Amino acid sequence: MIHRPLRQSRGRLATIFAIILCLMSAVMGSYVYSACQKASADYTKLVSDIILAQQATPQLRTALEEASHQPSNEPIEYIDYFVSVSKQHLNNIQTTIERHRYLTSDVQYLTHHFIELDSRLSILNQQALEAQQRPELIEPLLRDAIEISGSQAWFYNQLLEEIHAISLQQRLVMQRLSIAVSVLLVLMVSAAITLCLAVIHLHRQRNLMYQLMLTDELTGLYNRRHLVEVAFAALTQAQRDKAPLSLLLLDLDHFKQINDKYGHPSGDEVLRQVSIKLRQLSRPSDTLARIGGEEFCLLMPSTSTHDALQVADRLRREIEANKLSDLDQHDNPTISIGVTTGNGGTLTFEQLYSFADKALYQAKALGRNRVESLLPPLTASSENTDKAYMQSLIS
């Protein structure tokens, strides 16, 4: 009884620990998933687009410088080509960046450069259309285009440096990821083991509680509650099979004197040893229960009065002959037994118990350490036979 709160406390701690491990596993799993997404990102196409744009920029710039020496409207064609190619590269790069949601936040500070370059290219394209009617605008436009190409070169270099930094972060993430996966596996295994242990503990606790509900704590025998349940099923079976059902009530004689003389611990030990002896002498099909302080009950399915009286007398003799080391020889306990039998399950358990209890009272009144029986109303011949056998057995 003292250890039961400790077992319950351990069960609660195991459950709480399992819940904490599950939460930690969920958090670690979320981190592992996010890290996997970052580590598995492929920036090959983005780098390829940036390098292509980076290589095209000096070529376009050289073409613009050469266009300044061309006559008539030929520089405008170079400007249009410059704007078209530059916009195409910018759009390709921006589209590729948008596909990588983890990369977008890393290059967020370069967003305004995208917008600025796109806007300047659009303005440059519009001014090139105006320069077709105003040749004096061609030279300023060429200078603006060359300046924009320089901004593009800087912008592409910044992007490449950022991608390089992100690649280094990917390596670090992979290292952390391997550690996180190992920790996650350990946590999951620990959580699974802890949960299994908690379930096993709860299962054992449930079985223990169920066992305590059915058994007597001191002797380990069944209690009155379980006896009533078994008796109900046995009576139903006896009614179905038209079979006899015998009930024995056993009571230790002068047990109060043992408690008064040797103390209650010794009395408890006597009860335990008597219980062990009764269990050894009972059949597997019988149900033995402790129903009071020193009172026991033996339910015997498919057993006639004749057989029940034989069993009862054998029990009485074995208990009388059983010497207990803690007691003096003249204080060795004896038992009185009351026997009754119901035929065909026609009586309830309460009725059978009442007949057996009256028989036990009669055994006590006639001097104890004896067997008496009291049977429900039967035919005259059957009743005379049982009484004759009982008298011969007692004598």
UniProtKB/TrEMBL annotation:
- Any one Pfam family here would be GGDEF
Identify the enzyme class: transferase
- Write down the InterPro entries for this protein, in alphabetical order: Diguanylate_Cyclase, GGDEF_dom, Nucleotide_cyclase, Rev_trsase/Diguanyl_cyclase
Q: Which GO terms describe its biological process?
A: cell adhesion involved in single-species biofilm formation; negative regulation of bacterial-type flagellum-dependent cell motility
Keywords, A to Z?
Membrane, Transmembrane, Transmembrane helix
- Write out the catalysed reaction: 2 GTP = 3',3'-c-di-GMP + 2 diphosphate
CC terms in the record's Gene Ontology section:
plasma membrane
Q: Which PANTHER family match?
A: DIGUANYLATE CYCLASE DGCM-RELATED, REGULATORY COMPONENTS OF SENSORY TRANSDUCTION SYSTEM
Q: What is this protein called?
A: diguanylate cyclase
Say which species the protein is native to.
Vreelandella sulfidaeris
